[in-house]
Amino acid sequence: MNVNAVLVAITLALLTCGPRCIYSDDQRLLVNMTLVRNASALGAFCLDGSLPAYHLHRGFGGGARNWLLQFEGGGWCNSTKSCLDRANTRRGSTRYMSKWEVFSGILSNNASLNPDFYNWNRVKLRYCDGASFAGDAVYKNGTSLLYFRGQKIWEAIILDLLPKGLGQARKALLSGSSAGGLSSFLHCNNFTKYLPSTASVKCLSDAGFFLDERDISSNHTMRSFVKDVVSLHGVEKNLDENCTASYLNFPELCFFPQYAMKFITPPFFILNSAYDVYQFHHILVPPSADPQGHWNRCKLNPAACNPQQLNALQEFRRGMIVAVGLSYKYSRRGGFFINSCFAHGQSESQDTWFAADSPRVHNRTIAEAVGDWYFNRRATKEIDCPYPCVTTCHNLIP
Ligand SMILES: *[C@@H]1O[C@H](CO)[C@@H](O)[C@H](O)[C@H]1NC(C)=O
Ligand SMILES: *[C@@H]1O[C@H](CO)[C@@H](O)[C@H](O)[C@H]1NC(C)=O
Ligand SMILES: *[C@@H]1O[C@H](CO)[C@@H](O)[C@H](O)[C@H]1NC(C)=O
Ligand SMILES: *[C@@H]1O[C@H](CO)[C@@H](O)[C@H](O)[C@H]1NC(C)=O
Ligand SMILES: *[C@@H]1O[C@H](CO)[C@@H](O)[C@H](O)[C@H]1NC(C)=O
Ligand SMILES: *[C@@H]1O[C@H](CO)[C@@H](O)[C@H](O)[C@H]1NC(C)=O
Ligand SMILES: *[C@@H]1O[C@H](CO)[C@@H](O)[C@H](O)[C@H]1NC(C)=O
Ligand SMILES: *[C@@H]1O[C@H](CO)[C@@H](O)[C@H](O)[C@H]1NC(C)=O
Ligand SMILES: *[C@@H]1O[C@H](CO)[C@@H](O)[C@H](O)[C@H]1NC(C)=O
């Protein structure tokens, strides 16, 4: 959008949706960034030392006292080198981020695009720490300085939002996608403690159910990656203490949702594809496990997978179903929606969240399934049939 378009849109905004948002030419809702000025008092900084930020679009009508918080995703950094690189990008610094974010899917303010949450206060928490909002450390060596302060960023944003109405919330949903979906697991218990005891508080993870599975060469690639992230960022002390107490010699396992779940008290919803493409490409078949590139065609197009490759994918799906099932032994009020689309993140894109042709399981869209669960309209424990049976998928392969 050029400068003139912004000015026109801002003028429009004052007429249509208040000072914090505008509509772009194609009717997309754009929401202004708020820097958390008080964050420095808490030592809450992005990797590069910049202030953390969020985008808030106010609720209205019946939703005026309800709050949806959505953690942004974007992978992790696992070494000083990769974190220094990240510090100079939008993933590690608010300096490089877009100051206006598109609010679509679960963040949309349009009832016909987001039937249950459109009139809530909706907040997007920007991700700039590299460890799912869970680290607390600093790296310094004379020439380089890195802030691993995700946990502090989480606290600073909550403290900033409480006086803006979050502190009087009636209903709340802590949500997030990808690395942000993982944050939702890690902060779900802590979130409830800030809210009135009378509030209905639930949590949702979209594409955040990262599995502790071996890769196709039988290596624990993901587990050792997670171990590096946890130790570099000082995450361990922020993991659930009852969880780390029960995995004494492997506290980093509590970064994996499948182990953390049974310690989470609020009702939890897991939205994930059984063939999540991030997990397919980085957990099941990381480049290190396929140096010859035998999987390259299959990674780009599931129809090009040979029978052994399909087998490995079906095994992975079975592993996810077992892990989800075990997680819900402890949570009767939880829900899940495990579909079979080759995708990663389905709540923030309108096409996958709620549209005429969006993915369905038993004829329910993701928006309907999540809404039915949140408002206790209907139990929601959906598992899609295995690939290639599905016809409603948008296979979104990067
Ligand atoms: C955007 O947000 C900043 C800081 O929160 C504020 O100063 C500015 O007026 C806002 N701009 C618009 C157009 O809403
Ligand atoms: C972990 O860090 C190393 C060293 O910077 C890097 O080579 C590797 O790609 C990283 N792994 C991932 C999965 O990002
Ligand atoms: C809401 O979305 C519907 C369906 O896309 C569209 O027809 C309508 O114009 C939108 N309303 C607003 C206020 O943007
Ligand atoms: C500090 O760390 C960075 C990244 O690891 C490295 O490039 C730099 O040479 C180090 N500086 C010193 C003084 O060790
Ligand atoms: C920022 O911190 C100061 C001092 O702790 C406090 O008085 C002020 O209310 C805070 N502002 C916000 C927006 O939280
Ligand atoms: C949430 O977690 C942080 C970090 O562990 C802690 O300092 C804070 O007191 C917790 N908040 C509440 C309300 O328990
Ligand atoms: C994976 O495991 C094999 C043995 O199964 C080992 O030779 C190889 O070094 C491992 N690769 C990585 C990247 O850890
Ligand atoms: C750990 O478990 C005990 C006993 O069930 C509980 O009182 C405590 O709040 C739990 N701690 C955390 C951090 O969840
Ligand atoms: C699926 O749901 C739509 C409404 O969302 C309805 O119009 C349609 O008839 C349903 N199809 C079946 C096969 O139940």
Automatic annotation (TrEMBL):
<keyword id="KW-0964">Secreted</keyword>
<keyword id="KW-0134">Cell wall</keyword>
<comment type="function">
    <text>Hydrolyzes acetyl esters in homogalacturonan regions of pectin. In type I primary cell wall, galacturonic acid residues of pectin can be acetylated at the O-2 and O-3 positions. Decreasing the degree of acetylation of pectin gels in vitro alters their physical properties.</text>
</comment>
<dbReference type="InterPro" id="IPR004963">
    <property type="entry name" value="PAE/NOTUM"/>
</dbReference>
<dbReference type="GO" id="GO:0071555">
    <property type="term" value="P:cell wall organization"/>
</dbReference>
<feature type="signal peptide">
    <location>
        <begin position="1"/>
        <end position="24"/>
    </location>
</feature>
<dbReference type="Pfam" id="PF03283">
    <property type="entry name" value="PAE"/>
</dbReference>
<protein>
    <recommendedName>
        <fullName>Pectin acetylesterase</fullName>
        <ecNumber>3.1.1.-</ecNumber>
    </recommendedName>
</protein>
<comment type="similarity">
    <text>Belongs to the pectinacetylesterase family.</text>
</comment>
<dbReference type="GO" id="GO:0052793">
    <property type="term" value="F:pectin acetylesterase activity"/>
</dbReference>
<keyword id="KW-0732">Signal</keyword>
<keyword id="KW-0378">Hydrolase</keyword>
<keyword id="KW-0961">Cell wall biogenesis/degradation</keyword>
